[in-house]
Amino acid sequence: PYRFIPWVTQIARNAARNMARRRHRPRLGPAVAVDSGLSEDLAEKVAHAIDALASLSPPLRETARLSYLSGHKQYEVAKRLGIPLGTVKSRLANSRRQIRERMDAMSHSDCSRVVPSVEIRDRPGETMRVPLRGQGMVFASVLEVGEVEVMGFYDYPGGVLTGITRTEVRRMLDLCGHRCYEVLNVSSECEPPEPVELDYFEVRDDGIQWLLRVRGGESFPDVYPDVVTEPITPPYYDTAQPSPTCQMRVVDLRVGDTDRGRCLAVLEWDRDGTAAEMFYQADGRNVLHRRYVGPAARYGDYEHLPADDIRTINDQPYRHWYDTVLFEPSGSVSCSES
User: Fold this and answer.
1) Ranges of each domain in the chain
2) Does the pTM exceed 0.85?
3) Where does the RNA polymerase sigma factor 70 region 4 type domain start and stop, copy by copy (predicted)?
4) Going by fewer Cβ within 10 Å, which terminus of the chain is more open, N or C?
């Protein structure tokens, strides 16, 4: 392209996100075809531009993603990331240079840092009951000492990787009279960097209660206050027992090259204007988490998300915010009780 900035901001923001969406059709029902209007050659270049952007270092990647794909002005990017405006300009200049260089050498196989294809096929009329063994991805979806899960976060527009989190169930311990699992969360590939976290969960007859989160700080740890408002996670989901606070359906799920098979999809919505659809395997492991935001949400960047990627929830138009994809579980590790 003869001018890189207008090419990325216009073509990549509009046409390329339509292409990226095709990577994970069918979605929530009958797919609606979107004609990007691009020749095959230009479509290939757009896809390579998205892949090249996704392969940047976390600071450059997040600055370029917010500016070129989400359409934020440079001063908005500076405020959002907590950095000077001059740093934003410098990062964008570096990102443009590196994207050009990487596009010259990139092939279709270089897509690991962009959301993998997601195929969802409904199984109408089927029932399914899934026991919950943990709080879900990012918190550990299987609370057993030694369990390790690694997952990637992919934000829209573009479906670009914006972070990787590794959770490890380290031990059980007594916490103020509660027998809890301790879960260590370590994040990488994110901008700004996320602190190390320790979560504590109590498994009870009526479900799983999140009791405490402690975050590492530069000088000392702090306690995450919102835990006290979190509702208890039920002990199971069952399509034969409908709930007024969620919708359930049985699906076949395939993520990238991994066939997840028959899964239970659970759609829940919050009063903060966001919604999430979680996909559980029969053993209770959470393998895919899709997040949506409505027009009244306090966060989630609704106005900068694709307007042609809509899901109607409670008669409101929700836009696709991000996907969290479970990489293959790392298996169990040995943990001490110290």
Assistant:
1) 4-114, 121-332
2) no
3) 51-98
4) C
